[in-house]
TrEMBL record, chain A:
Upper lineage: Eukaryota, Metazoa, Chordata, Craniata, Vertebrata
Coiled coil: none
Location of the COQ9 C-terminal domain: 236-306
Subunit field text: Homodimer. Heterodimer; two heterodimers of COQ7:COQ9 come together on the same side of the lipid pseudo-bilayer and form a curved tetramer with a hydrophobic surface suitable for membrane interaction. These two tetramers assemble into a soluble octamer with a pseudo-bilayer of lipids captured within. Interacts with COQ7; this interaction allows ubiquinone (CoQ) isoprene intermediates presentation to COQ7 and facilitates the COQ7-mediated hydroxylase step.
Localization: Mitochondrion
Main location class: mitochondrion
Pfam families cross-referenced by the UniProt entry: COQ9 (PF08511), COQ9_N (PF21392)
Name of this chain's protein: Ubiquinone biosynthesis protein
Pathway assignment: Cofactor biosynthesis; ubiquinone biosynthesis
Entry-linked Gene3D superfamilies: Tetracycline Repressor, domain 2
UniProt similarity note: Belongs to the COQ9 family.
Species of the source: Cyprinus carpio
Keyword annotations of the record: Lipid-binding, Mitochondrion, Transit peptide, Ubiquinone biosynthesis
Low complexity bias spans: 83-100
Superkingdom of source: Eukaryota
From TrEMBL, chain B:
GO MF entries: 3-demethoxyubiquinol 3-hydroxylase activity; metal ion binding; oxidoreductase activity, acting on paired donors, with incorporation or reduction of molecular oxygen, NAD(P)H as one donor, and incorporation of one atom of oxygen
Job description of the protein: Catalyzes the hydroxylation of 2-polyprenyl-3-methyl-6-methoxy-1,4-benzoquinol (DMQH2) during ubiquinone biosynthesis. Has also a structural role in the COQ enzyme complex, stabilizing other COQ polypeptides. Involved in lifespan determination in a ubiquinone-independent manner.
Organism field: Cyprinus carpio (Common carp)
Full protein name: 5-demethoxyubiquinone hydroxylase, mitochondrial
Database matches in HAMAP family: COQ7
Enzymatic reactions: a 5-methoxy-2-methyl-3-(all-trans-polyprenyl)benzene-1,4-diol + AH2 + O2 = a 3-demethylubiquinol + A + H2O
Pathway, per record: Cofactor biosynthesis; ubiquinone biosynthesis
Lineage: Eukaryota, Metazoa, Chordata, Craniata, Vertebrata
């Protein structure tokens, strides 16, 4: 729409130049009309117009900039930006699932190639950039505002995020889960191609949980705040969904293909392990969180022990039942009840 | 049962996340075997609603086959040493095959099994054993009632899928049709073997079918 009016204004000015229309009022009216439309487009107070204005700004930004991260992120997050950004742009706030070849890779090149960005992609970019400011501002709307400013947008663009800090935390969690899923898939690939040894279950679980928890290390000081945000009632459904997807991913790549009640018991156990280890981690002050990993190790050993004990109990129970049946048949034989009449 | 597999070799484009094949597939069952695709039977979809619907369907079908399995187990426990036992065993083996197929689908497509499986375990066995205590006719009547419910359920699923998009769901439709035909065969076998001659046949059939409908309803949601 704007382009059409621009063209019209060009035609009008050409006419003015060519025919030198004497009526200044006429010229002023036409240019005034163009200005009025432009003004309407950007200064209007309606949300959608404001958003469109931000999109224009974003487009300009895309045209001029190469990458949006101005400050240097921690090295482990560089991949996270690409992975998390692309994955969270395909499904807002949700960690990406497994088999779907999602539009993420197109979005990656689409950003540069087509100069068009959806609102979700823009939100994802802002939130990813906001992670830089979390150590400084905490998990708050201020961090998002600071990030928006580094991206060249107004700090009022935090209005895009209805949930404020909750959006930021959920975005981060989704990003971490996506990165974890990618790492696990890579490892799986390696094992299948024979380039790596398959790990035992306990070790696999330990490594997976450790990998995931290590992603919290840059933000560990403010993580209690994030955890409390995730526990807010309106955030609980989303945070539970992220947690359950992550646990399902870990067990799937660990090789769990159960389709009975074990599906539930295993995931419940791992959820418990993850949550307790996370809690230990936020108050751990040992070098490189050694105590946390030791705690994790012990919990996993506990679960494995319990599983083994359960198996033993079941086997024993079956043996006992067989013994009793044998005893019953013997009794029936002795009393002659077994003979057919 | 505890099933833990090491993912097997499958060469894939490294960009795509890998879905390992279940290593426990036995090779002598006649169901459709997945080749180098990452999915089994269910078409891949990125639409959340459609995925939820497909998962729900598979969940309830899996629960149904599991329950049917347990019903036959109960019947065999009581009538295992009578003349009718080879017949029941044969029908049971077919159900086991169906269950294996659904286990495969659930595992590969990462569908959550229903929470009520332990309940269907006990209820199915109790129903099978209870009906078998009424004799061979009772067992056959139970079979007729259950298989009729299951066939009706599969038919409605087929209708739903046909309404949506027959081409997309060809494989799934083929599978459900095949299983529905098997269940109808069991139903007819039951009728052939004097199911209707059990006293209180109509009442028994009605009660069992109401129970099956309730089970299907709950399993879809839980």
């Amino acid at each position: 729409m704007i382009f059409g009016i621009k063209e019209k204004s060009i035609i009008l000015t050409n006419f003015d130049v060519l025919f030198a229309i004497a009526t200044n009022i006429h010229v002023r009216l036409k240019t005034g009309f163009v200005l009025q439309v432009a003004v309407q487009g950007t200064v209007s107070l309606q949300c959608s117009n404001v958003r469109r204005g931000f999109h224009r700004a974003a487009l300009l930004r895309l045209a001029s900039d190469s990458k949006s991260d101005t400050s240097v992120p921690p090295p482990s997050y560089h991949e996270v930006h690409t992975a998390g950004e692309s994955s969270s742009s395909s499904a807002q706030g949700e960690s990406s699932e497994d088999a779907q070849p999602n539009t993420s890779f197109q979005d990656q090149s689409g950003e540069h190639g087509e100069d068009y960005e959806t609102e979700e992609q823009l939100q994802a970019r802002i939130l990813t950039a906001a992670l830089e400011f979390v150590p400084q501002h905490g998990w708050t709307v201020e961090a998002i505002a600071a990030a928006a400013e580094t991206l060249g947008l107004s700090s009022a663009s935090t209005g895009m995020f209805n949930n404020g800090a909750g959006d930021l935390v959920l975005h981060f969690v989704a990003q971490c889960n996506a990165q974890l899923a990618e790492t696990l898939a890579e490892q799986n690939n390696q094992v299948q191609l024979g380039q790596a040894e398959a790990k035992k279950t306990a070790e696999f679980l330990k490594d997976a949980v450790e990998t995931r928890l290590r992603m919290l290390i840059p933000y560990i000081d403010t993580w209690p705040q994030a955890m409390s945000i995730l526990l807010l009632p309106h955030n609980i459904p989303d945070s539970l969904k992220h947690l359950s997807t992550m646990v399902d991913d870990i067990w799937y790549y660990a090789g769990d293909r159960s389709t009975d009640v074990n599906w539930y018991t295993r995931r419940a156990a791992l959820t418990g392990i993850y949550n307790t280890t996370e809690l230990v981690m936020v108050q751990d002050s040992s070098p490189d969180f050694e105590e946390t990993w030791a705690f994790l190790d012990n919990r996993i050993k506990d679960v494995v022990n319990m599983a083994n004990t359960a198996k033993q109990v079941q086997a024993t129970g079956e043996a006992v039942v067989q013994g009793l049946m044998g005893a019953a048949i013997t009794l029936k034989n002795l009393t002659g009840m077994n003979q057919r009449r | 049962m505890h099933r833990f597999v090491r993912p097997q070799l499958m060469l894939r484009d490294s960009k795509q996340p890998l879905l390992p094949r279940a290593g426990h597939l036995c090779t002598n069952h006649k169901s459709v075997v997945s080749s180098v695709r990452g999915y089994v039977v269910l078409p891949p979809t990125s639409d959340e609603e459609e995925k939820a619907m497909l998962h729900r369907m598979m969940r309830v079908d899996h629960a149904g086959e599991y329950g049917a399995n347990r019903i036959y187990a109960g019947q065999m426990a009581v009538l295992g040493r009578t003349q009718i036992s080879p017949l029941i065993q044969e029908m049971w083996d077919q159900e086991k095959q169906h269950l294996r197929k659904f286990n495969e689908i659930l595992a590969e497509n990462r569908v959550r099994p229903t929470l009520l499986l332990p309940l269907w375990n006990i209820a199915g066995f109790a129903l099978g054993a209870g009906s078998a205590l009424l004799g061979k006719e009772g067992a056959m009547a139970c079979t007729v009632a259950v298989e009729e419910s299951i066939s009706e359920h599969y038919n409605s699923q087929i209708r739903t899928l046909m309404e949506k998009d027959p081409e997309k769901y060809t494989e799934l439709l083929q599978l459900i049709k095949e299983f529905r035909d098997d269940e109808m065969e069991h139903h007819d076998t039951g009728l052939e073997h004097d199911a209707e001659s059990v006293p209180g046949y109509q009442l028994m059939k009605a009660i069992i079918q109401v129970g099956c409908k309730a089970a299907i309803y709950i399993s879809e949601r839980l």
